[in-house]
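To the wet lab folks,

You asked to see what we're planning to order before we commit. Fair enough. Below is the target structure as tokens, and below that is the sequence we designed to fit it. If anything looks off to you, flag it before the synthesis order goes out.
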């Protein structure tokens, strides 16, 4: 599975962005998809994940501000980000894990939040 992330950019603090991650094939055999981010000089951290049944999990730092969703018909997972803060600045990458436990990673998309 190849994952193509898009939607990053420059936004002012308090603004919103929506990231998209399109898979190269149907995601019905993929049980978990998610978004991770890595800020300069920091370790990569989980932002949000969603299972095939729609169960979601968020990092505490984004709860109430970010929403992850998936559209199986479009083979796409989304990350709606609102009330963005400068500390949300990072490279955001999408990931998927299939029913065999294999992990796939897409290239990152840069999100920059100015103060």
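Sequence we intend to order:
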């Amino acid at each position: 599975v190849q994952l193509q992330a898009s939607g990053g950019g420059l936004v002012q603090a308090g603004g919103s962005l929506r990231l998209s991650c399109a898979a190269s094939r149907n995601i019905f055999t993929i049980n978990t998809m998610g978004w991770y981010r890595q800020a300069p000089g920091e370790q990569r951290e989980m932002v949000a994940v969603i299972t095939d049944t729609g169960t979601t999990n968020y990092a505490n730092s984004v709860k109430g501000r970010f929403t992850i969703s998936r559209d199986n018909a479009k083979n796409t997972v989304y990350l709606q980000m609102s009330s963005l803060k400068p500390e949300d600045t990072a490279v955001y990458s999408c990931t998927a894990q299939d029913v065999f436990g294999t992990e796939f990673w897409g290239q990152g998309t840069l999100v920059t939040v100015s103060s």
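Structural context that might help your review: The chain is about 0% helix and 55% strand. The chain has a mean pLDDT of 94.

Thanks,
Computational group
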